[in-house]
Every structure is written in C-alpha cells, then in structure tokens.
Amino acid sequence: MSDCCPGSKTMDFSDDEQTEDETGARQSQLKQWPIQLHLVSPQAPYFQERDILLAADCVPFTLADFHKDHLKGKSLAIGCPKLDSDQEVYVDKIASLIDDSKINTLTVMIMQVPCCMGLSQIAKSGADKATRKIPVKQVVVSVEGGQVLSEEWL
Amino acid sequence: MENIMSKDIRAVIDQCPDVGRILEEYGIGCAPCSVGSCLVSDVVGIHGLDPQTEATLMYKMEKAIYPDRDVPEPKVDLSKIVPKEINYSPAVKNLVDEHVLIKRMLALIPTIADFVENSETVDKDLILSCVDFIRGYADKFHHMKEEDIFFKYVDEQSEIIKIMYEDHDTGRNHVKNVVEGAENGNKAQIKEHLNGYRDLLTQHIKKEDEILYPWIERQMTDNQIGELFQRCSAADASVGEELPKKYEKFIIELEEKFAKEN
Description:
The structure holds two protein chains of two kinds. Chain A is of the alpha/beta class. Chain A has helices at about 60, 65-70, 85-100, 115-130; strands spanning about 10, 30-35, 50-55, 75-80, 105-110, 135-140, 150-154. Chain A has one domain (about 30-155): Dna Topoisomerase Vi A Subunit, Chain: A, domain 2, CATH 3.40.1360. Chain A contains four helices and seven strands. In chain A, the strands form two sheets. A five-stranded mixed beta sheet of chain A has the order 4-3-5-6-7. In chain A, strands 1-2 form a two-stranded antiparallel sheet. The longest helix of chain A is centred in the middle third of the chain and has 13 residues, at about 85-100. The N and C termini of chain A lie far apart (about 30 Å). By secondary structure, chain B is mainly α. In chain B, about 75% of the residues lie in helices and about 0% in strands. In chain B, helix 6 packs parallel to helix 11. The longest helix of chain B has about 35 residues, at about 185-220. The interface between A and B is medium-sized, with 13 and 15 residues.
C-alpha cells in the first residue's frame, strides 16, 4: 500500500485529544484512516491488540448512533459482501488481523438482508484460518428503523 | 416501592409470603433459599427479564405488599415477549460445557452411594478416584477459573457472588467428609456427603448457567470479553490439554462400570 495516495495513507489518530464541543454536536469516534478493507493494512498500528468492528457498508447509514453505540472504543474496517471483488483477500486479512495484530475481539455488523450474511461468512472463514482464537460477535441491523435485531457470539 | 427494593429478599418474603410465590411464578426461586440476603433490586435485576415482564412482576409484588395502594397495572403486550435463548461468549460457553462433565459425575452419585452401602467393605480406591475428579476437574480446573478470573469482572462483595463462594466452600467441606469416611470405612458419612455434594452442585450449576453467567456477561464490555477469553485460554494451556481428557475418560469408564453392574 503506497503512502503517497491520501486515500490509503495509514493514519492513527487514536491519541488525539478530544475537546468538548460547545455546540453540543457529537464527536466522531473514528480514530484511523483508511477504513475500507481492501485499503487497510491488517498490521496497521491502529489494529494492534484492539477490538475490531467489521461493518457492512450500509450499516453506519442506518444507525443514527453508530459512532456512540458501536464504533466507540473500536478500530474499523468496512466492506460489502455483495459488490466488493477479490473477497478471498478479505479472508486473509481477517486471519492476519487475528494472528499478526493479535486483535482482542471481532464484531461483524451486517444488515438483515440475506446477501449481507456473506460478511459474517468472511469473518468466520478468516477466524477459522487463523491460528489464534478470539471471540467473534455478529450484530444484525434492521433495514427499516435502523434497530439492532440480534447480537450473538458465533 | 423504592424502600422495598433495598431490603433483603428474605425479610420481604417473611413480611409478605405471597412475594415468594409471585417470584416462583417468574422462575425466581428465592423462597426456598436458605441465605436470602440478596437485595430485592438485585434479585429482579439479575434475572434480566424483559422490561414488560419486569414491570408486571414489580406490579404484582407491590400489590401483594401494599394491597390497599392504588397501583396502575402495566399494559403487557404478550405478542412482544419472545423467550430469549442464552448466547454465551466463547469463554463462558466453555465454562458451561465443563458443567456438562461435572453433571455426568453428579448423575452417577446415587448409584455410587448405593454401591457403597451394599458392598461388604468400602471401595476406597473408587471413592478417592471420584474425589480426585471433583478436586482436580470440578474444583481446581473449573472453579478456579471462576474464582481467579471470571468473578473478578463484577463486584465480589455482591451477595450473589458471595453465595457462589459459599457454595464452593460447602462443596469442599462435603468432599473433605467423603475422604474422611473413605479413610475410616464409614459408609453413612460417605453417602451423606456424596449426596450433599450432589444436591449442592446441581442447584449451583443451574444458578450459574441460567442466571449468574448471563448476568456477569451483560455487565462486561467486548474488550473484557476478549480479555476473559485469552485469560481462560491461558489458564487451560497452563494445565495442558491432557487434564480435561483424562477426567473425561474417567467419567466414561465410571459410567461403563456402573452400566455393567446394573
């Protein structure tokens, strides 16, 4: 991954101090760049020993409090199991996150639509491929109303 | 209602026995509990009832305690109440799975107790090998992960955790008595304390599987769940994978021995 492209340049801003916003606007809980699973390096500093959230692309748009309730305290990767190509790379990257970056947990957030289950399958395949074992959780979000329908450890 | 919430459940049931009956209706077995020092607020909170069920339970308890009070009945939409299946995180699922092997030992205890009673002399080796399972697997391998790791994620001074520790100690005392009985050839002592251990652990495991473990997990962050998994995995690795296999083999052989004898 070249550091020349601003779109894929690795940035970890988890140490940046958060200041109180006097307007009452919520602050972003995103502490890294990039976030797209093809663009991230699984060995990036912001993944080391962290809790990882792997979200389907549509998830953050349906949940009004995505940052506060789900992203806070976690590092992020996003992808679409229906449209993204070369998904075997995703499986390898998940395995590398677990083995090389020694991530603590992996939470997969998907939409309730059937095609989104593919992202959970990618996560499970990556976890199976890894030598280390970690807890993997699946969270399913409703299309209408943006509610969490289920949360379960796989 | 607030002042009731901060009282010991035993005091409330003594004052109004109907409360015990109402709790029973909701699968909360406080009435027969000999300790009864849990606070009402903890008793209700620990069972993780859905909001509508909890509101109805509180309404019924308040009406039982203050029959003259005008308490509005909560509207409960039964169609919205879906029975919840317990979904344990991987480390806690392993603890629940370890209970299965312990329960297989508990299931054999009545047969072992009868065997002891009907034998001419006490089969000391048999009793001590059962004690070795209880001490080596149930206590050292399993209970120590609870005491040294899992229970540390909640306030160890909470009544429910204190009761769990008391159960572990009572169990150890039963086992000590079983050993004493085996050493002295005292059949009655062996039988009494094997059965005592069985009764205690049967209830203890049920409480852990259905109430305590889910309650602790509800309070844990994902970060703690991951940490718990790594710490329990390290504890398992420290004793080696042969130890649980050895004890599983022992239970299988014990089941076969008594299946043949019957």
